[in-house]
């Protein structure tokens, strides 16, 4: 299978040992100086054992303005085209363009897996206060943050949050992302996170023997949640 030479170059340059990269997306709306995206990058600079991880961060630009901004401030940038997208700036939540971007992201992440790269995907409004890698479960295929966590990382009643995932590249995750992407047709008009919540108990995942864990909100949570210190 042939892959984009430029994408391979960017991923290879940013990869840590074991072919793992950190990925985020950036569009026109967040590309302005002084935006949340600048806080995102700053969190890597000031977080605990996170500064070194900037070397492994690849910014996926959803439009030309975002790509120009990325090239001005970061060494690892890749311009992702979304067919039929009018504007990434004017894409209100759950609009047709918004859904195109979300599903293009899932399709793209599957390509990264097919290229043999494991990844942490992070939304650009997540603050990296410390290195998350010591808190990931070893030898698990797919790990994801939660909107609602019930105390058991294997409980599929936990409600996933697609804004932060750690995925290992292997045949199981490649099949899983393909199934996830195809499921957009089964659940039309829904974004990737809602569809994941629909398919997380599907027999297909059992058949491919995908291992899945939900990340504890004590370590991977929002500022609005009250959590004990650690």
From TrEMBL:
It holds the Pfam family Nucleotid_trans. It comes from the Eukaryota. PANTHER family: EXPRESSED PROTEIN-RELATED, GLYCOSYLTRANSFERASE. Residues 53-225 form the Nucleotide-diphospho-sugar transferase domain. This is EXPRESSED PROTEIN-RELATED. It comes from Salix viminalis (Common osier).
